[in-house]
Each structure stands twice: as structure tokens, then as C-alpha cells.
């Protein structure tokens, strides 16, 4: 069976859930080969996970160069593997870093690129929601090896324990790929909450919160649900919450099982980033807010009363 | 500092966007078209760098004849000159072909800094900065929320947005910079700027002028193709309840009934 390359998404070796999703998807297309690229000593943390989700082979490249530069090194190694292995497809996660890598790999290998796929059939026809999810298209790569950027939460990960063959990849990064050097990484907000794009539940706050400190209401609700915290553009523009948490057209696109919008009107800008969520709950005092046109459950009321009560009710249910 | 900034004309965010029924490209005829909002941040950043360090800002766009409106906007904000790559054969170019065409034009301008925005509101690929860096063989300083240029050391440092903070990334000139929104507050064109824009140099290039291979661009050169396209099933509104003092409890009951808690 032909190989399907899966770029392992990880943080210092700890695999992200989307990696399991990509391996699960890859198994429907061919033989999954995980490609682990990271700093020296990080692969050990991913090894078991990749075997658990059915990698038939793992290409391992560990090098300081890989973790020290933006874009170039990972794209270079992955493109080289594409040329050598001639896979049927390359799957990467739709994260900020990996989509850029995917684009460079497609350019290097003169292949077609499809981004934000939510499904991929065995004959490599990808499904995408475009224009903020208002139009569904299916598309196919017509040149080279399809490089497909897949949205997190598109495939339910299924374990399929295997004993992957490991192949160490020689890493000789060209000087040209080492142009943008990472000199420091600064952690500003360590929340302990799940990644916004990977989370099963997202609670987002908007203009209705009225002030930065009121985001604690959203955070408390999120924490009782094990959720990630999002924010509308109005809230991030006002400086109430970090830009990294922005959901919508110029922010992140999320597709969780449950999306709770607190004090968000649901303008097209925001809708574009969350309307593929499975269940949408909205709390807003304005009965005319557009979000009520597509929410599964809408509560017209004062969020300052509703949200604490909801948080408490969930806590009670958990305790009981 | 020789600065090039790329802009793109897109359907207005508020317009109902669709694909052309015949060739499955973005329908740009039936809607209002505007400068991609994120590109305004790119133009602003280019102008700020020029104001701080001197130099010249050249706007580059690829798009139909109408895209000249977007060029005018960038010029009226304060850019010095513009290059408009326009040709019927370019219609339907994908991100890969677009980046190759833009790179070809940009390389003739020998820039110190190429600025692009992180995303266009029509395709939302978020890959043009990475692709330009790849095509031009320049360092990729994308996802920048802050850009610091040090002309003396011939160096650019950015704060690259990360999930829980940022990475400080540096590179030697020339570089490709991709900016995110909130990096700055784009200025509005002044009346004086709008008048001045009409007299600023604008070069219009055909695909042949730019030395592009006709088979590698447009729909013919695209490396992917849309197979089918249909409107998403409409999301109908569900239950809407007015808070009678027990709203939070009601929401919890709904979540429990849906087995979400």
C-alpha cells in the first residue's frame, strides 16, 4: 500500500490530538507514515502515541535547526521526504505554523495544495467549507502529490496499535532555509486550557461583557466545562482579551462539539469562524442579535445573571 | 528602505460571496469589491517603516482591471507607486500560481522588505507570506504583531504570534514580513492623499510583460480544481428562550439533554 505522510503536530514532543486525527484519516487513504520533526530528544515523548494511532512507519528528524527557524527547515525536510517516498498524499494540521509549511512543501514539490479540508475521501477528493462555511466545495489536487491541510476536529481519532518501523532522516538544512531565526519564545498567558482549535468545547466572550475583567465570567464557565476561551473581534480590538483567542474571519476557525457565545452579536465576521460548531448556545440581551438566527439554543437575557447561574448549575450536576 | 507591499481586492466581507457557476472561481462581478481589510495593516506598516527610516513604498497587486481601485486606495494612504499585474490569462490562479507571479514581479523591484498580510478574507489560505518567502528565497517573518527594523545592522526583528504568547524572530534584510491585524491602526486616506494618488506612477503589466509562462498561471496552471460547489445546508435557529430569572439553569438543562455535560 502506498504511503501517506502525516506531519506530526507536537509541542516539544508532546503530540497534539490532531495528530491522532490525521493518522486515523491517513489509514483510510493508505499506509500512514508519521513524520516527526523536532528538537533533539523530543521524539521519545511522541513515540508511543504514534504507535497507538497506527503509524506504520515513523520518519524521525531531530535537530536544533528544526526548532530554531521559522518555516524553512521543516518544509525542506518534508519536501525531501515527499520526493523520496512518493506518497499518495501529505496531511498536515491546519495550524498557523503547519499551513505555512504545507504551502512551502507544495511549492517545492510543484504539487497542489488544499487548505482547511474537513474531509478527504479515499480517492483524495477534499471537502472544504469556504466563505466562512456558507458554501461547501469538493476539490481535488491535479498536480504532484496532494498536500492537504486538515482542520482539527474533522476526524474522530481511533486507536489502532501498531509497531512502526523507525527511519532516522538525515537532517542537513540549507543556509537558505535558516533565514528567520527564533531568538526567544515568550509565554504571555499560560492558561492550562485546551488549544482553541482543538477544544471540544469553546466558550467565547464579546462586546456584551463590557470590560476586560468580566472575562473571568467566561473563564469560570469554560473551566467548569474543560473548555477553551475565545473572544470576538470587538473584545480583542478593545484589548479585553488576547488576539490569539480571537474567533472569526481574521482570527481562528473553530469547530467544537459545543460553542457557547456570551455577549456576542454574531455578525458575519464572527460567524465565519464558528458556524460549523456542532451545537451553538448563545446568551445575549438583544433579542434581535443575529446569533439567535443560527444558535441551537438562545437565551435572551443579562449575561451577568445567566452565566454565573449556568456555571453553578453545571458544577452542581458534576458534583451530583 | 525599498519596501514592497502586496494588496488584494476581495469581495466585501458583508457581501454574500459565491463561486461563479461556470468556472468555480470567486464571483467578483456580482459583489462590491474592496481592499482586503488585512492588507490595510500591511500598507500602514510599510508607511510606518518608511516614515521611520526613509525610502519608498511600492504597492503590488494581481487582479482584474477593477483592482486598480484597491491600488488607488493604497496610494491615497501614502504609498509612492504601484505595479498592477493584470491579464485575462491570470484569472483562476491558485495561491501557488499567484505567489509565483507576484514573486516574479517583486524580484524585479529589488526590495529590502516585502510586506504582506496574514490572510485574505475571500480565500483565507493564510499562506501568501510563506509562499513569497519560498519563491523569493527570503527569510519568512510571518504572523508578525510587531516589526522592528534596524537599518544599521541590516536586520528585522518581529514578534511572531504563538498560541500562548509570541516568538521573537530575527532575520537579515531582505525579508518577507507577514503582518496580522492589530499590529497598527491603518490610517484613512486624507483628501490631499486621494488627490495626490491620481498623479502617482502606476505600471500595468500583462502576463507577457512580467515574463510569465501562460501554461503555469490561471485556471490552466492551477494545481487543484473545484469538483463540486453547493450552498451549505442552512443552519436554522433552534429554541430561543427569554430569561425569567432561571436562564442559566435552563441552559444547563439543555446541555444535559444534549448530553453535552
Distance from first to last alpha carbon of chain B = 57 Å
Give the DSSP E fraction of chain B (strand runs of 2 or more residues).
25-35%
Note the main sheet of chain A.
9 strands, mixed
CATH class of the largest domain in chain A: Alpha Beta
Fourth-level CATH superfamily of the largest domain in chain A = HUPs
What is the H-and-E element order of chain A? EEEHEHEHHEHEEEEEEEHEHEHEEH
Helix count from the secondary structure assignment of chain A: 9
CATH superfamily of chain B: HUPs
Shape of chain B: globular
Oligomer: heterodimer
The whole-number mean of residue pLDDT values of chain B reads 93
CATH architecture of the largest domain in chain A: 3-Layer(aba) Sandwich
Order of helices and strands of chain B: EEEHEHEHEHEEEEHEHEEH
SSE-based structural type of chain A: alpha/beta
How do the strands line up in the largest sheet of chain B? Answer: 9-8-7-10-6-1-4-5-11
Topology:
The complex is a heterodimer of chains A (320) and B (261).
Chain A: E1 3-7, E2 10-11, E3 14-15, H1 17-27, E4 31-38, H2 47-52, E5 57-62, H3 64-68, H4 72-85, E6 89-93, H5 96-108, E7 113-120, E8 126-130, E9 135-141, E10 147-150, E11 165-168, E12 181-187, E13 201-205, H6 215-225, E14 228-231, H7 233-237, E15 258-262, H8 268-271, E16 279-284, E17 297-300, H9 303-319
Parallel strand pairs in A: 1-4, 1-6, 4-5, 5-11, 6-10, 7-10, 13-14, 13-15, 15-16, 16-17
Antiparallel strand pairs in A: 2-3, 7-8, 8-9
Chain B: E1 2-7, E2 9-11, E3 33-35, H1 37-53, E4 56-62, H2 68-77, E5 81-85, H3 95-107, E6 113-117, H4 128-136, E7 140-150, E8 155-162, E9 165-172, E10 175-179, H5 191-197, E11 202-205, H6 218-221, E12 224-231, E13 239-242, H7 247-257
Parallel strand pairs in B: 1-4, 1-6, 4-5, 5-11, 6-10, 7-10
Antiparallel strand pairs in B: 2-3, 7-8, 8-9
Helix pairs in contact in B: 2-5, 3-4
Amino acid at each position: 500500500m502506498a504511503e501517506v505522510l502525516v506531519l506530526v503536530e507536537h509541542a516539544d514532543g508532546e503530540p497534539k490530538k490532531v495528530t491522532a486525527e490525521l493518522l486515523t484519516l491517513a489509514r483510510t487513504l493508505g499506509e500512514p507514515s508519521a513524520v516527526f520533526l523536532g528538537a533533539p530528544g523530543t521524539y521519545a515523548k511522541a513515540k508511543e502515541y504514534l504507535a497507538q494511532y497506527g503509524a506504520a512507519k515513523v520518519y524521525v528528524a531531530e535537530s536544533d535547526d528544526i526548532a530554531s527557524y521559522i518555516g524553512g527547515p521543516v518544509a525542506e525536510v518534508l519536501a525531501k521526504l515527499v520526493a523520496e517516498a512518493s506518497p499518495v498524499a501529505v496531511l498536515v494540521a491546519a495550524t498557523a505554523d503547519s499551513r505555512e509549511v504545507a504551502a512551502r512543501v507544495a511549492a517545492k514539490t510543484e504539487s497542489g495544495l488544499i487548505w482547511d479540508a474537513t474531509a478527504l475521501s479515499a480517492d483524495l477528493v477534499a471537502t472544504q467549507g469556504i466563505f466562512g462555511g456558507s458554501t461547501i466545495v469538493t476539490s481535488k489536487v491535479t498536480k504532484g502529490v496532494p498536500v492537504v491541510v486538515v482542520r482539527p476536529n474533522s476526524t474522530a481519532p481511533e486507536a489502532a496499535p501498531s509497531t512502526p518501523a523507525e527511519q532516522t532522516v538525515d537532517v542537513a538544512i540549507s543556509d537558505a532555509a535558516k533565514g528567520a531565526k527564533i531568538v526567544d519564545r515568550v509565554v504571555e498567558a499560560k492558561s492550562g486550557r485546551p488549544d482553541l482549535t482543538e477544544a471540544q468545547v469553546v466558550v467565547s466572550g464579546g462586546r456584551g461583557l463590557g470590560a476586560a475583567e468580566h472575562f473571568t465570567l467566561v473563564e469560570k464557565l469554560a473551566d467548569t466545562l474543560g473548555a477553551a476561551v475565545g473572544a470576538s473581534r470587538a473584545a480583542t480590538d478593545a484589548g479585553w482579551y488576547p488576539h490569539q483567542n480571537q474567533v472569526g474571519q481574521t482570527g481562528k476557525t473553530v469547530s467544537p462539539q459545543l460553542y457557547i457565545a456570551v455577549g456576542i452579536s454574531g455578525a458575519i465576521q464572527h460567524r465565519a469562524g464558528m458556524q460549523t460548531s456542532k451545537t451553538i448556545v448563545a446568551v445575549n440581551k438583544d433579542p434581535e442579535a443575529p446569533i439567535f438566527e443560527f444558535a441551537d439554543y438562545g437565551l435572551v437575557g443579562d449575561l451577568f445573571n445567566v452565566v454565573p447561574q449556568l456555571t453553578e448549575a453545571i458544577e452542581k450536576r458534576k458534583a451530583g | 528602505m525599498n519596501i514592497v507591499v502586496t494588496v488584494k481586492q476581495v469581495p466585501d466581507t458583508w457581501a454574500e460571496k459565491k463561486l461563479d457557476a461556470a468556472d468555480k472561481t470567486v464571483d467578483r462581478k456580482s459583489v462590491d469589491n474592496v481592499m482586503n481589510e488585512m492588507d490595510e495593516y500591511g500598507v500602514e506598516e510599510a508607511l510606518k517603516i518608511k516614515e521611520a527610516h526613509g525610502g519608498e513604498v511600492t504597492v503590488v497587486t494581481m487582479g482584474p482591471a477593477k483592482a486598480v481601485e484597491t491600488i488607488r486606495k493604497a496610494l491615497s494612504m501614502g504609498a509612492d507607486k504601484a505595479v498592477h499585474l493584470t491579464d485575462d490569462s491570470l484569472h483562476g490562479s491558485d495561491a501557488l500560481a499567484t505567489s509565483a507571479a507576484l514573486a516574479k514581479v517583486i524580484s524585479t523591484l529589488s526590495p529590502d522588505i516585502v510586506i504582506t498580510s496574514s490572510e485574505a478574507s475571500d480565500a483565507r489560505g493564510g499562506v501568501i507570506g510563506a509562499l513569497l518567502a519560498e519563491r523569493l528565497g527570503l527569510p519568512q517573518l510571518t504572523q508578525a504583531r510587531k516589526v522592528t527594523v534596524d537599518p544599521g545592522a541590516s536586520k528585522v526583528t518581529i514578534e511572531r504570534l504563538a498560541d500562548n504568547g509570541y516568538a521573537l524572530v530575527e532575520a537579515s534584510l531582505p525579508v518577507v514580513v507577514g503582518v496580522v491585524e492589530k499590529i497598527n491602526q491603518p490610517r484613512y486616506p486624507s483628501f490631499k492623499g486621494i488627490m495626490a494618488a491620481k498623479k502617482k506612477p502606476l505600471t500595468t503589466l500583462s502576463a507577457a510583460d512580467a515574463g510569465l509562462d501562460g501554461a503555469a498561471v490561471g485556471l490552466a496552471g492551477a494545481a487543484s480544481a473545484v469538483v463540486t460547489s453547493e450552498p451549505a445546508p442552512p443552519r436554522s435557529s433552534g429554541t430561543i428562550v427569554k430569561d425569567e430569572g432561571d436562564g442559566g439553569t435552563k441552559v444547563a438543562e439543555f446541555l444535559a439533554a444534549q448530553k453535552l455535560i
